[in-house]
Amino acid sequence: MSFRQLSSDVKPVLLRDRLEQTPVARTEPVGGDHGRGLWILIVLSALMAFGSISTDLYLPALPALGRALNAAPGQMELTISSYLIGFSLGQLLWGPIGDRHGRRLPIAIGLMLFVVGSAGCALSTTAWQMIGWRVVQAVGACVGPVLARAIVRDLYARARSAQMLSALMTVMAIAPLLGPIVGAQILALWSWQGIFWTIAGVGLLTLAAIATLRETLPRSRRDRAPLYRALSDYVALARDPRLLGYAISGGFFFGGIFAYIAGTPFAYIAYYHVPPQVYGILFGAGIIGIMLANLLNARAVMRLGSDRLLLLGTAGAALAGVATALDAGFGWGGLVGLVAPLLLYLSMAGFIVANSVSGALAAFPHRAGTVSALVGAMHYGTGVLTAAMVGWFADGTPWPMGWIIALGGVGSFATTMLLVRGPRRNAQDTPARIEPEP
């Protein structure tokens, strides 16, 4: 299925005015709307990619940044972990705001905060200033994925939303592929400050693009509860076992992903003596695997259902995780024996992420922003924990990374079996047309 075919299914919604929409988009192709649908997908893809853009672009500049700011050992790593913490917790803020005030206004405010945080990073003169501005940048950046997912749920029914999320994530996967390359070129031609000014420029361009989109959550469907009740709402949502199953399943998997990100530079470069250039190729191969799996998921989800594909993905992740741990612990297969299951584990993101998110959103479609925030916070929160665990249990071998990834894969599969109950279909797992409200 091509990107153009997917974009043809986005029907522009009608406006009551510039900020309010009455009818909800249908999930059927509408002639003449190909260009509009393609533009919506491009903007949503940009919003989904903000997490990668904010970090991957400046990774090549970390050594230069540390020297320029006279940073103590380990402080530059704090610019990454502080960002992840802000990105995780910030989602819990934007979800309820998006359900109460619509999607466009909170996204615009978040993007302005992101631009301010990026400019603050560019103007930083100490490592602690940089760490603080990275938190501000993260809190603004996380509005993109949270409300982009909610917009997809506003527009599409369960299986169709999984298909569209797969398409968005396929495009989004380009960011970590190109980010370090583009960042290195900006560093060579400009400076490390130039990288953050470029990131701020991306935020401004996306902010301008948001002005061209129409609101997808009409006032009649907005949550009127006060924002201070958000905490109790999260507790209530977390009591739903099926919703919890989707969120925890994805959380376990993300834990393995972040252990991979934290552990493979040492495992590949320091332990197996892989040249840094080859490490970049191996990292890119994993991203390509994710893109291919997302394309396959987009083609199969309408026929097989998202729960079946989620079960398939978590089973593959469990097998890959166990194989990774065995090689990491016993050296079976050497470097190839480690790389192969890791690439398989990464590729399973194409089946797990979109289907777990769409399943969680389908459980409470009227609270899509809050649910999206809860799921995203659990995903990134688990990732922060497992990335730290790789450092805590470091012993000079790939073994800590291996068993943490195995735990992530097996935990994801077990949660899917116990709480999501695998291939069981329900009414929300079949395509449905979202009709306009009267």
Task: List the uncertain runs.
Answer: 1-32, 422-438
Average pLDDT level: 79
CATH superfamily of the largest domain: MFS general substrate transporter like domains
First-last Cα distance: 33 Å
Describe the secondary structure blueprint for this structure:
Layout: H1 3-7, H2 34-48, H3 50-56, H4 62-68, H5 75-101, H6 104-122, H7 127-141, H8 143-155, H9 158-172, H10 174-189, H11 192-210, H12 230-238, H13 241-271, H14 276-304, H15 306-330, H16 334-347, H17 349-363, H18 368-392, H19 399-420
Helix pairs in contact: 2-8, 2-9, 3-10, 5-6, 5-7, 5-8, 5-18, 6-7, 6-11, 8-9, 8-18, 9-14, 9-17, 13-16, 13-17, 13-18, 13-19, 14-15, 14-16, 14-17, 15-16, 15-17, 15-19, 17-18
Q: Could you please describe the fold and organization of this structure?
A:
The protein contains 19 helices and no strands. With 438 residues, the protein is an all-alpha fold. It has two domains: 224 residues, Growth Hormone, Chain: A, CATH 1.20.1250.20; 204 residues, MFS general substrate transporter like domains (Growth Hormone, Chain: A). The N terminus and C terminus are likely disordered.
In short:
This protein is an all-alpha fold.
Kindly list the characteristics that best describe this protein:
about 450 residues, Growth Hormone, Chain: A, 2 domains, about 75% helix, disordered N terminus, disordered C terminus
